[in-house]
From TrEMBL:
<keyword id="KW-0472">Membrane</keyword>
<feature type="transmembrane region" description="Helical">
    <location>
        <begin position="308"/>
        <end position="329"/>
    </location>
</feature>
<dbReference type="GO" id="GO:0005886">
    <property type="term" value="C:plasma membrane"/>
</dbReference>
<keyword id="KW-0812">Transmembrane</keyword>
<dbReference type="Pfam" id="PF01943">
    <property type="entry name" value="Polysacc_synt"/>
</dbReference>
<feature type="transmembrane region" description="Helical">
    <location>
        <begin position="258"/>
        <end position="287"/>
    </location>
</feature>
<feature type="transmembrane region" description="Helical">
    <location>
        <begin position="128"/>
        <end position="149"/>
    </location>
</feature>
<feature type="transmembrane region" description="Helical">
    <location>
        <begin position="88"/>
        <end position="116"/>
    </location>
</feature>
<feature type="transmembrane region" description="Helical">
    <location>
        <begin position="408"/>
        <end position="425"/>
    </location>
</feature>
<feature type="transmembrane region" description="Helical">
    <location>
        <begin position="437"/>
        <end position="459"/>
    </location>
</feature>
<feature type="transmembrane region" description="Helical">
    <location>
        <begin position="161"/>
        <end position="183"/>
    </location>
</feature>
<dbReference type="InterPro" id="IPR002797">
    <property type="entry name" value="Polysacc_synth"/>
</dbReference>
<feature type="transmembrane region" description="Helical">
    <location>
        <begin position="45"/>
        <end position="67"/>
    </location>
</feature>
<feature type="transmembrane region" description="Helical">
    <location>
        <begin position="231"/>
        <end position="252"/>
    </location>
</feature>
<feature type="transmembrane region" description="Helical">
    <location>
        <begin position="465"/>
        <end position="487"/>
    </location>
</feature>
<feature type="transmembrane region" description="Helical">
    <location>
        <begin position="189"/>
        <end position="210"/>
    </location>
</feature>
<keyword id="KW-1133">Transmembrane helix</keyword>
Length: 509
């Protein structure tokens, strides 16, 4: 019991650190987007998003390798194997170097082909788009080389340092936008170059910090063929999931560009940034839970794993609903306050993508639980088969000239299907009753959510005043929070939530 209390306290402490980091980073990111859209203009902003999207098609390796490295690090930490931790880190560094070379070659070949043969970019901006592509590829390479350090900090649950470095990165990106505003040359090229420099700085900070604080991070050439094979095998299946997810997120952006041009990409870029901001806040919460799930799985504490799985999923949905519902209900008004020129269809794309995030949050811990077992082949095949199927439906919608928002709705239907599959599979992994899980997590949380949403709907926005808008936002948050707190959670989950809120309160007051 004492160990569980310590674990819960640590999760709460890490959540506080990450939420403070995310809130600050989110505010900076939203302000940065406003300035960047003004500095570049809608067309150049759209070009940056679609060309960057081409490179992001390869960034799945970055996120999946973080997951892979973190999983193996946490597994060794759960067993208390110091030597194994260092071997995992060194092997991870070797893998990243190999992956970086492969990505550079693939990015150049396929990126240039898409740029000159498929993307709809004004001829006079092709030179700028070329250099945006080059700098974006190099930025991705730097991010890939940072994977072992990022994964190690997360595995160590050193969230305070992780938060400080991330906030610094956000400040540097904001500084880059200010520099772009004063620049008299091609602002699009200059901005892409500055983002590359920012990532290089952050990469060296991560490396310097880890090398000076943790002895396990001391790199030496380590050849462990068995471990490398296991990590590459695990990464290959998680990479498949990354490929299909990016096919949905960025591949569909490329399709929008091919059928509708860069102006629509600007709208998608804005909606993706809003999604990234709220999802980062949620991701910080699951980042606090994930190491504990893997460590407890490695140590064989099944009851603790089940508890973390249920509590993490419900709290993830709770937090995502508090973040997304006020935005969904007031999208046009908030966009008007935030941006000077709002690209067409931004409000519709934003509402749909936040609904997707809301549904996805229900299974935020399911993925971690399944991957903790290491038995993911059939899971990844079915999961990605579902994603590809709905992407194919989206492509058909483009070809048949359905309304502009319909392909995005296919992504929403995909997320609903995936939430049921991931929940079912996670239950089967460690013998959890599927009926109990879906009743406790999906049914209770969705029931409380729709009750709260119904109550909020009786408070229509009748005026354009900013004070009235703020009151409506606060009202939506309070109602949704109360309904989910009273109906969705059990006593243990309420206690954890109160503990976390108390830590946040004492942190500031």
């Amino acid at each position: 019991m004492g160990e569980q209390n310590y674990s819960s306290s640590r999760i709460a402490k890490n959540t506080v650190a990450l939420y403070i980091r995310s809130f600050i980073s989110m505010l900076i990111a939203l302000y940065t987007s406003r300035l960047l859209l003004k500095a570049l203009g809608i067309d150049d902003f759209g070009i940056y998003n679609v060309v960057g999207g081409v490179v992001m098609l390869f960034s799945f390796l970055n996120s999946t390798l973080v997951v892979s490295s973190q999983r193996f690090l946490n597994y060794e930490m759960g067993k208390g194997n110091y030597t194994g931790i260092n071997e995992v880190f060194c092997t991870s560094v070797n893998i990243q170097l190999l992956i970086a070379i492969i990505i550079f070659i693939m990015g150049e070949a396929s990126g240039l082909y898409l740029l000159y043969h498929y993307l709809s970019i004004p001829q006079e901006r092709m030179f700028a788009a070329f250099w945006v592509l080059q700098f974006s590829i190099l930025t991705l390479i730097v991010n890939i080389l940072s994977v072992p350090y990022n994964a190690f900090i997360i595995a160590k649950e050193d969230m305070k340092s992780f938060a400080y470095i991330d906030i610094l990165g956000s400040i540097l990106k904001l500084s880059a936008v200010f520099a772009v505003i004063t620049f008299v040359g091609d602002r699009l090229i200059f901005y892409a170059l500055l983002i590359l420099l920012v990532q290089i700085i952050i990469r060296f900070i991560y490396s310097f910090y880890c090398n000076h604080k943790y002895a396990e991070v001391k790199y030496h050439f380590c050849r462990n063929d068995k471990l490398m094979k296991e990590m590459l095998s695990f990464s290959s299946w998680t990479s498949l999931s990354g490929i299909t997810s990016l096919l949905n997120n960025y591949g569909i952006g490329i399709l929008y560009n091919m059928f509708y041009g860069v102006a629509v990409n600007a709208a998608i870029g804005i909606s993706n940034q809003i999604h990234a901001a709220v999802w980062t806040l949620l991701g910080n919460f699951t980042t606090s839970f994930n190491p504990q799930i893997t460590k407890n799985y490695a140590s064989g504490d099944w009851n603790r794993v089940k508890q973390l799985h249920f509590t993490g999923a419900k709290l993830s949905f709770f937090l995502m609903s508090l973040l997304s519902v006020p935005i969904i209900l007031n999208t046009k008004h908030l966009l008007g306050l935030w941006l000077i020129d709002v690209p067409p269809y931004t409000d519709v794309f934003t509402q749909i993508i936040l609904c997707i995030a809301l549904i996805s949050s229900l299974t935020s811990t399911s993925n971690t639980l399944v991957r903790s077992t290491g038995k993911i082949k059939s899971y990844e095949l079915i999961l990605n088969g579902i994603i590809v199927f709905f992407f194919f439906l989206s492509f058909i919608c483009f070809r048949l000239h359905f309304p502009l928002y319909v392909p995005y709705l296919m992504l929403l239907f995909s997320s609903v299907t995936l939430s049921f599959f991931e929940g079912y599979r996670s239950c089967k992994c460690i013998g959890i009753s599927c009926r109990r899980y879906f009743y406790s997590v999906h049914f209770r949380m969705l029931l409380s959510f729709f009750i709260g949403l119904s109550v909020v709907s009786f408070f229509p926005l009748e005026t354009e005043g900013i004070i009235y808008l703020l009151v409506r936002l606060l009202y939506a948050v309070i109602v949704i929070a109360l309904c989910e707190y009273l109906i969705g959670f059990n006593n243990r989950e309420r206690n954890f939530l109160k503990q976390t809120v108390s830590k946040i309160w004492h942190k500031f007051f």
